Inverse folding.
């Protein structure tokens, strides 16, 4: 390759960021419900780490396309992603949301109720690994999973999701681009390495078909083989 044609990762990152800004403006600016949730999260002092508008739209579409009726969310925060998931599952669907912080879960539930999904969502408070273990012991099964909690445990969450999965279930994980650390020098940082390991685990897992989608902060989508 001629030197002046050599690929610069920073150029690719700039294009990626511009495309994400465009998608987020396109899908987020006119959604009053989700915009109000983001304002409420800021007012209540929660960290500004909700999924991007484009990622939220993808979640709604994936739930709807898959026909999922039993959805499990790992990490509720203020309810932004919960509303996106609930929008896709229809009136017969149920959402079980695991959240470590009780105040976060309370705010999320308030937002789900305002959005019209209060009767369809259940919050389980406490460390997610303990809650997942209990769900396995209770023989609960789900057909859609969304992982968006502490990154150190992503591989552990994945293992539990597979145990809880109906055949053909969809598993989605957010932030798998690790703040644009994957594929660049920043991948040497701890979070980048964690996400690299997670993505490789998903890609090579014998029970999963998977794909990485570069929107938001990166979304990994996998289907549990039947």
């Amino acid at each position: 390759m001629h030197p002046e044609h050599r690929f610069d990762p920073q150029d690719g990152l700039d294009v990626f960021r511009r495309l994400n800004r465009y998608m987020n403006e396109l899908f987020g600016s006119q959604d009053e419900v989700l915009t109000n949730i983001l304002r409420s999260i800021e007012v209540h002092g929660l960290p500004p780490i909700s999924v991007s508008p484009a990622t939220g739209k993808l979640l709604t579409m994936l739930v709807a396309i898959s026909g999922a009726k039993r959805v499990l969310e790992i990490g509720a925060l203020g309810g932004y992603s919960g509303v996106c998931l609930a929008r896709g599952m229809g009136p017969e669907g149920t959402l079980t949301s695991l959240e470590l912080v009780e105040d976060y879960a309370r705010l999320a539930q308030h937002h789900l109720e305002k959005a019209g999904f209060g009767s369809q969502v259940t919050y389980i408070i406490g460390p997610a690994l303990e809650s997942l273990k209990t769900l396995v012991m209770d023989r609960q099964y789900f057909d859609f999973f969304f992982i968006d909690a502490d990154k150190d445990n992503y591989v552990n969450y994945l293992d539990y999701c597979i145990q809880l999965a109906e055949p053909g279930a969809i598993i989605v994980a957010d932030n798998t681009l690790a703040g644009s650390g994957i594929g660049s020098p920043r991948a040497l940082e701890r979070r980048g390495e964690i996400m690299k390991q997670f993505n490789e685990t998903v890609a090579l897992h014998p029970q999963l078909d998977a794909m990485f989608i570069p929107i938001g902060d990166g979304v990994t989508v996998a289907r549990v083989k039947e």
The chain has a mean pLDDT of 89.
